[in-house]
Amino acid sequence: MTLHSSRQQETQVDSLVQSSGPLSQPDLFRPSLFRGAIGIVACSAEGAALCYRIIVRDAARVLARHRPTTDTAAPSPLPKHHPSVSMHSLSLFDYMEAIEAGDWNAVARLMVHSANACIAAGATVLICPDNTIHQALACARTVPRFPATTPWLSIVDAVVAEAQRRSLRRVLLLGTKWLVNCDALYPAAFEAAGIACVRTSTAHRERVSDIIMADLCIGKFEPACVSEIVDIIQHHVAHDGCDAVALCCTELPLILHDGNCPVPTLSSTELLAVAALEHVCRREQ
Questions:
Q1: Phi/psi zone of residue 65: left (φ > 0), alpha (ψ -120 to 50 degrees), beta?
Q2: What SS3 state is found at 131?
Q3: Which of 38, 88, 166, 199 has its CA 20 to 30 A from that of 8?
Q4: How far is Cα 51 from Cα 53, in angstroms, rounded to an integer?
């Protein structure tokens, strides 16, 4: 599918979104314990799916932190209870066509289309579990029909906040080459927080990016590739004195974790999912 044909499809869906408005919770469901619904603006399938699974897995735990202990009348949160979640995903091909052309305005238009589809399905807060396309979020705010009244949580903010909470000093940035090459996202955010952002060498970022796009994005997890990335992390830990590695590709936590990395990890996927849960647990009605 070309970007042109995808836009034709978007126009058809847009007309449905405009005419439908947000969906309300069906009467047959009991009232939600959560104070909102999460909309996932998806780009790559594996990262978006992992983010969704974390939301479902961690929902009851996060909710329990926000419920008053004196509320004896309210039932305990069920292990499988989670907020309403909607997800919209356009073709990764269309995103990559725009990214490789350096057309971040086109990326922004795709994001806004998915955002409005999620809102039409009832979302009250938006997240995008894809680090690379966050650099188009500023452009998205200028796109017609950008949902300015709906909060859009930043994956960058979630990662940097956790690094501050852990009092980290030097964090290795791992992700696609488009993400690592971008000065305006993580390097700027970490610097503002007083944390050094260490970027992989040009050769290493190209190799990690190749593994992400050729393997991880299609659900292919080769042990040899895992070992290769761990070796890259080890190299930068030894040479740059990093005290943590930020997994700033949402597929990376599928293969990397504290158990196989030489330093603690910051999972951007998990941190964004938990930030969304925190939002729908504490948001004022």
A1: alpha
A2: coil
A3: 38
A4: 5
> CA-to-CA distance for 285 and 278, rounded, in angstroms?
14
Give the residue from 123, 127, 187, 121 showing the smallest Cα distance to 152. 127
Distance, CA of 3 to CA of 9 (rounded, Å): 10
What is the 3-state composition of the chain as percent helix, strand, coil, each rounded to the nearest 5?
A: 50, 10, 35
Which residues are paired to 52 by β-bridges? none
Mean pLDDT by 10 residues, the chain (285 residues): 49 50 50 83 97 94 74 56 93 97 97 97 96 96 94 98 98 98 97 98 97 97 97 97 98 98 98 96 61
| Phi, psi for residue 244 in degrees, rounded to 5 | -165, 165
For residue 223, with 0-12 CB atoms within 10 Å meaning exposed, 13-18 middle and 19 or more buried, which class applies?
exposed
Q: Which long-range contacts (CB under 8 A, 24 or more apart) does 28-35 make?
A: 32/83, 32/84, 33/63, 33/67, 33/74, 33/77, 33/81, 34/59, 34/63, 34/82, 34/83, 34/84, 34/280, 34/281, 35/280, 35/281, 35/282, 35/283, 35/284, 35/285
Distances in whole angstroms, Cα of residue 190 to Cα of each of 45, 113, 179, 222, 242: 27, 30, 14, 31, 13
